[in-house]
Specification:
The protein is an all-beta fold. It has no helices and 22 strands.
Length: 258
């Protein structure tokens, strides 16, 4: 998986570097780039025929953690080019192209590695306390770590089967998505699923609300809580008031999801 370098003025050989890290590597043409290399802001983008765009360090050839799935007009990416700062992809014999805003050059750069036990599903970062929180899925215990990964103890969150923990700015509270088969706006049962908001570092409940079965994710932005269920065939995002849990309706995600 060698990247060859040449002098742009005379075509002279300037060496080579092997690409490494994440990659769609195979002798199959499906995984190879067909007209699929671009250099943007000093980074190499390799676009494979099977629709992946991945970014590499031009000097070392190492994958830097950033990639995304493109959607050309047909099954495979056969054409790529840069237009107005956007990466555009297309397919053989098609006249429709899709163009993408590329992420910031620093996005995905690994600044440091933090070692800590994530226990199971779910977890989150609490902005007020500057702590990582991880729940032990089969129990209601939430384990806390500081920004450097140092264990800070634990507390009882009051709920098992938690798939995600979210916070809202520096609010002294946290939100959890509890996974189960039956939506419930009250009570705790092994089969119930809901979004719950608790106070501080306690199991004291502020509100509990149910939008659908199999709730597995939650995010908060100011006055609104967003949540989704587990199955990919359901593109609905449910909204609730962050202060009360009252429903604010829903909307469907559209477009290709890969």
């Amino acid at each position: 998986y060698t990247l060859y370098k040449m002098d742009r003025n005379n075509g002279g050989n300037k060496g080579s570097v092997n690409l490494s890290g994440w990659g769609q590597w195979s002798s199959s043409s499906t995984y190879a780039p067909y007209d699929g290399l671009e250099v943007v802001d000093g980074k190499l983008w390799r676009i494979t025929r099977n629709r992946y765009a991945a970014r590499y360090n031009l000097t070392t050839g190492k994958f830097d953690g950033v990639y995304f799935y493109t959607t050309p007009g047909s099954s495979y990416v056969e054409n790529t080019f840069m237009k107005d700062g956007k990466l555009c992809v297309g397919s053989y014999g098609r006249n429709d192209m899709n163009c993408y805003e590329l992420p910031d050059a620093n996005l995905g750069s690994l600044n440091r590695n933090i070692s800590m036990n994530t226990y199971s599903h779910g977890g989150g970062y609490h902005n007020k306390y500057s702590e990582f929180w991880y729940n032990n899925y089969s129990s209601s215990t939430i384990y806390r770590y500081d920004r450097n990964g140092k264990a800070m103890g634990n507390f009882n969150g009051g709920h098992t089967n938690v798939r995600q923990i979210a916070t809202n700015g520096t609010e002294d509270a946290y939100y959890m998505a509890r996974y189960g088969s039956s939506a419930s706006a009250s009570g705790v049962n092994s089969s119930y699923t809901y979004i719950v908001k608790n106070k501080g570092k306690t199991s004291t409940k502020i509100w509990q609300a149910a939008a659908s079965s199999y709730m597995s994710s939650v995010a908060v932005d100011g006055a609104t809580v967003y949540s989704q269920r587990y199955y990919s065939s359901h593109p609905t995002v449910y909204m609730m008031k962050s202060t009360t849990g009252q429903s604010l309706g829903s909307f469907n995600l559209t477009g290709s999801i890969g």
